[in-house]
Automatic annotation (TrEMBL):
Keywords: NADP, Oxidoreductase. Transmembrane segments: none annotated. Signal peptide: none annotated. The lineage of its organism: Eukaryota, Viridiplantae, Streptophyta, Embryophyta, Tracheophyta. GO terms for molecular function: oxidoreductase activity, acting on the CH-OH group of donors, NAD or NADP as acceptor. This is NAD-dependent epimerase/dehydratase domain-containing protein. Residues 14-200 form the NAD-dependent epimerase/dehydratase domain. The keyword Cell membrane does not apply. InterPro entries: Epimerase_deHydtase, NAD(P)-bd_dom_sf, NAD(P)_dehydrat-like. PANTHER family: CINNAMOYL-COA REDUCTASE-LIKE PROTEIN, NAD DEPENDENT EPIMERASE/DEHYDRATASE. It comes from the Eukaryota.
């Protein structure tokens, strides 16, 4: 039985770990996918996997984008009904990456606002945007009201958490202003089958432990 062809959707950055598996899942369900890939220095292992897959899948198109270039995002979004936004930095996060991620999130949401066919934005954030604060040990419930304390993140140099907190804040503010239908997914530690030899430094820091996590083992939160 043929898979019913569903609307076109965009995944950005499709070369991130989460983005790649979203892309694979959408293709298996019959969607036409615009894989928007940020261009780094040289082709990454994940990007090669996607380009190889595109040669086999008629419903997969690859677009090179720069999230700081609003117009390149518009090109990738053309004809799409939804945007899966999964911004990530393959080289890890420092204090300089924060502004870049915030500006990228704003450009993605604004591009969606200017694309008539877009019906929904699925914004991939992180649990780290919701849990980091002085009294983390006493926190049990995490919901849409929960945000990481920005000064606490700066003090402990939790740049990944701060980038996710500020970029999600910016995305929500603009989405509400433009009256867009947006939902955010705040995942915890994401693990799964390997795709390439590419290691996510933000994940490795949590597996190895950091100075900021010396007194933190495993926390249980209710959603």
């Amino acid at each position: 039985m043929d898979i019913e062809e569903l609307p076109s959707v965009c995944v950005l950055d499709a070369s991130s770990y989460v983005g790649f598996w979203i892309l694979k899942g959408l293709l298996s369900r019959g969607y036409t996918v615009h894989a928007a890939i940020q261009k780094y220095n040289g082709e990454t292992g994940m990007e090669k996997k996607i380009r190889d897959l595109a040669r086999e899948q008629e419903r997969l198109s690859v677009f090179e984008v720069d999230v700081l270039d609003y117009h390149s995002i518009l090109v990738a979004l053309k004809g799409c009904s939804a945007m899966f936004c999964c911004l990530d930095c393959p080289d890890g996060y420092d204090d300089k990456m924060i502004d870049l991620e915030v500006r990228g999130a704003i450009n993605v949401v604004e591009a969606c606002a200017q694309t008539d066919t877009i019906e929904k934005i699925i914004f991939s954030s992180s649990l780290t945007a919701a849990i980091w604060r002085e009294n983390i040990c006493s926190q049990e419930d995490v919901d849409e009201r929960s945000w990481s304390d920005q000064e606490f993140c700066r003090k402990l140099k939790l740049w990944y958490a701060l980038a996710k907190t500020l970029s999600e804040h910016a995305a929500w503010a603009l989405a509400m202003d433009r009256k867009l239908n947006m939902v955010s997914i705040n995942a915890g530690l994401v693990l799964g089958p390997g795709v390439s030899q590419q290691n996510r430094l933000s994940t490795m820091s949590y597996l190895k432990g950091t100075d900021a996590c010396d007194d933190i083992s495993i926390y249980s939160f209710k959603f």
